[in-house]
Amino acid sequence: MPPSRDEAAQALREISNVQARVAGFQDYRFEAQQLMLWGSLNMAGCILSALLQSHLLLIWGAIALSGVVLGTRMACRSSDAPGIAPRYLLIILSILLFDVILHVLFWPITPRQGGMIVPLFVATLYVIRGAQSRPRYIVLGAALALLCCCAYWFADTHYWWWLAFSWGGTLIVAGCWLRRC
Amino acid sequence: MQSPNDLIHQPVRLKIMAALNTLGSRQWLDFVSLRSIVDTTDGNLGAHLGTLEGANYVQIKKDFVGKKPRTRVCLTAGGREAFGQYVAELHAILTPQNIDG
């Protein structure tokens, strides 16, 4: 016997719910890989900055280049969505360009101030993204902003070490969290 | 009117098919992720996957990642076609001429 109209509507609603859940699941999985990559790179960058404070430009140039290359390869491997590589590059290069432009506009700024630009920008982007679609990103963005501001305000001589954990560490922990969802 | 596929028209199997259909062709989903999406127990999911595998709607692959066993599931071409037809039949039930009738 064919299902009633209500049963058919219920089944279609169920399909739609599952599709939304799978989309969220895939989104978190994809993001988790990127968070762990960029978290590790930023943590390495902050530790190197603490150890070699006269080579900041070289260190962060190398970190950005490594992130773009590795992240693009990872994005292409983990998603078969059309145009994933150009879209990924657009996002990453926009963040890097934002950082460069702010350095130019507000120069001279201290390395301590400069180190806060990308973390706070990324934190804001996650809060916006979370408000629009997936609530876990709000938690990630808020935690990132709070911990990085704490590093800026309270860590005097150990700023880069604090930032290594509040910036890189938060991204890594968030990556593990999203992976387990 | 043709009755929708009874094998798919069961709450857990419907969720399994819908989840796998969302993925691309030949894209595998691991058992743990599928259990989380479908929101059921290991035993229940395993039993329903067995039923769908018997109908050749899904393909199940078991392998190892290092020393850890891993089970992955994929929708077959036949399964994708059957699910597409099932959804079309559900929509047909909701079309105005069928509601009036």
From TrEMBL, chain A:
Instruction: Give the domain of life.
Output: Bacteria
Natural source organism: Pseudomonas abyssi
Q: What is this protein called?
A: Uncharacterized protein
Q: Which UniProt keywords apply?
A: Membrane, Transmembrane, Transmembrane helix
- Membrane-spanning segments: 35-52, 58-76, 88-107, 113-130, 137-154, 160-178
UniProtKB/TrEMBL annotation, chain B:
Q: What is the lineage of its organism?
A: Bacteria, Pseudomonadati, Pseudomonadota, Gammaproteobacteria, Pseudomonadales
- What is the species listed in this Swiss-Prot or TrEMBL entry? Pseudomonas abyssi
Q: Which InterPro entries match?
A: WH-like_DNA-bd_sf, WH_DNA-bd_dom, WH_DNA-bd_sf
Superkingdom? Bacteria
Under Gene3D superfamilies, the record lists: Winged helix-like DNA-binding domain superfamily/Winged helix DNA-binding domain
Q: What is this protein called?
A: Transcriptional regulator
